[in-house]
Amino acid sequence: MIQVKNASFKYENAISGAAVEDIHAVIPKGEVVLLCGESGSGKTTFSRLINGLIPSYYEGELEGTVLVEGQDIQEVELYELAPHVGSVFQNPKSQFYTLQTDTEIVFACENIGMEKADILKRFDITVESLHIQNLLGKSLFALSGGEKQKIACASVSSLLPEIFVLDEPSSNLDIGTIQELQKILLSWKAQGKTIIIAEHRLAWLRSIADRVLFFKNGKIALDLASDSFWEKTTAEIHNMGLRAHSRFYPEHKRKADSHEKIELRDFRFSYGKTPILNIPFLEVPEGAVVAVLGDNGAGKTTFARCLCGLEKKGQGTLMYKSAPYIGKKRINLCYMVMQDVNHQLFSESVLEEVVLGADIPTDEKKEKIAGKILSELDLLEYKDAHPMSLSGGQRQRVAIASAVASDKEIIVFDEPTSGLDYRHMKEVAENIHRLSSLGKTEFIITHDPELVAACCDYFVFIESGTVTHSGEWTSDNIQFVGDYFNLI
Amino acid sequence: METILRNTRPTARQMYLDPRTKIFLCLTVSFVMLAGDGMGTMRYVQPVLAIVPLVFLLLLKKPWIAVYYVGMYIITTTLPYLLLPHLPSIVNFLFTGVIAVCTQALPSMSMFCLLILTTTVSEFMAAMDSLHIPKKLTVPISIMFRFFPTIREEYAAIRDAMKLREVGSWRNPIEMLEYRLVPLLMGLVSIGNDLSASALTRGFHAPTRRTNVCPIGFHWQDAVAFIFCMVVIVIFSLSLLLGW
Amino acid sequence: MKKQKNTNTLNGKDLMTVGIFTAVYLVIYILASCVLGIIPIVSMLMSCFSSIILGIPMMLYFSKIKKFGMVLITYIVNGTVMVLLGLGVYSLTIGIICALIAELILRSGQYQSANRAILAFAIACVGANANTIYWVTGSAQFLERTAASMGTDYMTTVVNYFSYPWVLPGVMLSAFAGGLLGGLLGKSVLKKHFIKSGLI
Fold first, then answer.
1. Is position C7 within any domain?
2. Which chains touch C (3 or more CB pairs under 8 A)?
3. Which residues of C touch A353 (CB under 8 A)?
4. Is residue C6 situated within a structural domain?
5. Of A183, A304, A406, C83, which one has the fewest beta carbons inside 10 Å?
6. How far apart, in whole angstroms, are the C-alpha atoms of residue A425 and residue B105?
7. How many angstroms away from the CA of B83 is the closest CA of chain A?
8. Which residue of B has its CA nearest to C21?
9. Domain residues of chain B, as ranges?
């Protein structure tokens, strides 16, 4: 039982999250509540009120009362709440502590000082009920994002809490793994646990959620039974700023193709003796927006790294405008917009960031070219701002601007929309369109059907390191991609 | 169910030893290598200590690192002697001598690396708890262990990003430093925040005594290692006191 | 009705911060030592150079410190690692003393003053680099010993440790100066990036 009465919270440091105001909600035991809303609407803050991170971890002003299992969160310490509330977070790589699956599962039990025999018993129960026998005895760094997320679920599950709080757990997962997460949630639901889940991707929760709380500007704008929520049309859901799930259908098709082709020949990479990538021949039209699809671990990221010339041991030749590019030489031709775009922002202002590393002789010319690129990408008004002070979509655009400034012709995006709401996804799609209108060829690695529909006009499907399907949107291909995305 | 949690004996991965024994070995090697003057009996004891990491490298089946280690050891013990006569005395004092002294620590550095690589975070926490080290030290040390691989991962990502942009050459050292450290720190701080939030919601830092499921305990191998350490320490003390 | 939690002792979050920054500190310190230590002229100025580099992460760390004890734990851990690495005990013993002084300086400014943070960091640097005492004395002993055992040809290389009395204070002073420079660099980077972007 969770009771939130007139709760308001404002972070001391505004970048920690969005403030919430006047929140009123009673969540009975066994209910599964979906928290949705745009980024910055306060749904994560609400989840932190329940797992006690507010006010114990995030400092700020809290008013009103929050009772979790009868305890006032202002009065209890986090470790007192741990046996009652289990939390799973968004980023799989930053929520494991012990580097090994077995020890990670019992980590929480050890912390609260349970008896050793009990811990081993709990361990067995947890492993069995979540079906993770195959993950035991492994290093956590060797697991995929989805597998890490399952271990995270197991680690909180071992304490047998009554309440589970999940903060965008599917952001970094592919479609296959989301199904498995779905199974875990269903088993918790069957055990009568209360589940609070904040999410952007809603489709996979259709069979799980009992109730939907829609957040807007830090308030609960709608409190619906899930049935009446799912009755809404795609357009209505998009209007609320949320992701919808409808049958995949691309918005753009390539016009009659007179373009030159980019050819990839003999792309191979192996890790030790295990082959990861093996593409004898692949052809994509120049200027296309190519969706690179496939499950986690199929070799998409390796493909991207080899394409950009980042893998020293990656073999293969890229033919662009009938000139061959081998290995590291491709760095001059290609650019990768990383999943975590923060890694590639170095300067103290947007303007400097764009000209940094660009091969332009005079300062005056630099300013001019940079100005032109910035206005093309709608960034001119931020030219003196620190790149890290911008929103995620704008940061990505700064990274794109710097790629344009250094004359890169092929731009690779690594999962650009993981964890983004509808509006921000649209913004990314818009960024991709702009690049496309500048004549660049783009490769988009993604699990996001809406993004593919919104901007891609070609696709490559990778399975076990090889390209099994590729082409433009013929009706067969639309059917194939649609079926792939429709697994959930 | 089959799990490492039910192991009762340390395996090859842990060098067959209890973490406390490894710490003791590491301390013995570093102290005797440091304080021994290479004269008298120490002339024989110190090379014997230098063999200890070699034994462990072979136990861990890392023959190439073992070869590399032997090569390094030979170079560091002979090179300063070869260089000495050819350099002016101030350079010898400030460089050759210092290098010779520091490289004397090669065996202890290798022991330390082995200690880190063969001990998991859980084992370390168990060992420190059994040695009654206060939580104010064990919590930071355990998160440190967790963080080393993360630093490497993040740094690799930043190096890739720099390659893509062709920035940060050594020609401008301050800039190079800034481009590397600033994104690295920003990333690490945010990962660190997430990590602590997730550990704290799982009851880390509860004031109760932590249970350690992972098996630590002494076996005959530990006794052998202990006796070895004691013998070395006794010989060392005798050589110090009696000038053997 | 808000329960007054004890705000002066270190809580879990603080200890995590300590661990994270200590890990960053050690990685950078050890890498810098390995890279710079083998360059002849630089090796004795290593404490200075590494302090400059460390200025950036440590100023970020110091800006997060609001309680007594965090700096102390960092330097205790650093000293212990140095002991285990076989590089002498001075980084632990003198390191603790200097870290305590640094703590007091930080506290005297209520953990708000950037200038005091720079001074505190410079003093902590002296302690952290106290190993050089052992290196310098060890170096002199090593040369003497080698010369004695190798015969007269080597006698020219013998240096008495007292023949260069400025070396030890010089090294300590260079660590202090490096700490000040590093602190200033760190402060400017902090302002340029972390404050401008709103991260702290």
1. no
2. A, B
3. none
4. no
5. A183
6. 55
7. 38
8. B144
9. 12-120+214-242, 126-201
CA distances, C55 to each of A347, B141, C184 (Å): 19, 22, 8
Structure tokens at B43: 């002339």
d(CA B175, CA A356): 11
Helices (H), B60-134: 63-83, 89-91, 97-103, 106-117, 121-130
ipTM of the prediction: 0.88
Distance between CA atoms of residues A209 and C20, nearest Å:
38
- Tens-digit pLDDT profile for chain A (488 aa)? 899 999 999 998 877 888 999 999 999 999 999 999 988 889 999 999 999 998 888 988 999 999 999 899 988 888 899 999 999 998 888 889 988 899 999 999 999 888 999 999 999 999 998 889 999 988 888 888 888 999 999 999 999 999 999 999 988 888 888 888 999 999 999 999 999 999 988 888 988 999 999 999 999 999 999 999 989 888 899 999 898 877 888 888 877 666 788 999 999 998 888 888 999 999 999 989 999 998 888 889 899 999 999 988 888 899 998 899 998 889 989 999 998 888 999 988 999 888 887 766 777 888 888 888 898 888 889 989 999 888 888 888 899 898 888 888 999 999 898 888 898 899 889 989 988 888 899 999 998 889 999 999 999 999 989 999 999 899 999 999 998 888 65
Contact B33, B49 (CB under 8 A): yes
Residue showing tokens 């046996």: A83
Nearest CA-CA distance, residue B230 and chain C, Å: 18
Q: How far apart are CA A219 and CA A208, in angstroms?
A: 24
A237 in reach of chain B (CB within 8 A): no
| Structure-token pair, residue A321 | 């405008």
Match 């090994």 to its residue by tokens.
A100
State whether A75 and C13 contact (CB < 8 Å): no
Integer Cα distance of A447 and A476 in angstroms: 20
If you average pLDDT over residues C106-110, what whole number do you get?
Answer: 92
Whole-number percent of chain B with pLDDT over 70: 97
The whole-angstrom separation of Cα C74 and Cα B139 is 12
CB C190 within 8 A of CB C115: no
Total domains in chain C come to 1
Residue count (chain A): 488
Of B5, B162, B164, the CB nearest to A120: B5
What's the pTM value of the predicted model, to 2 decimals?
0.91
CA–CA separation, C21 vs C58, rounded Å?
A: 8
CB A74 within 8 Å of CB A55: yes
Contacts of C1 in chain A (CB under 8 A): 74
Does a structural domain hold residue C8? Answer: no
Give the residue numbers in A contacting C (CB under 8 Å), as ranges.
13-15, 57, 74-75, 77-78, 348, 386-389
Q: Which domain holds residue C156?
A: 14-197
Q: Which residue has the tokens 């039974």?
A: A225
For residues C50 and C91, what is the distance between their CA atoms, to the nearest angstrom? Answer: 15
Q: Which of B182, B184, B204 has the most C C-beta neighbours within 10 Å, making it the best mutation to test the interface with C?
A: B182
For residue A441, give the nearest of A408, A394, A399, A478 by alpha carbon.
A408
* Residues whose CB is less than 8 angstroms from the CB of residue B161 and which lie 6 or more positions away in sequence, other chains included: A338, A343, A344, B183
Residues across chain B: 244
Contact A68, A147 (CB under 8 A): no
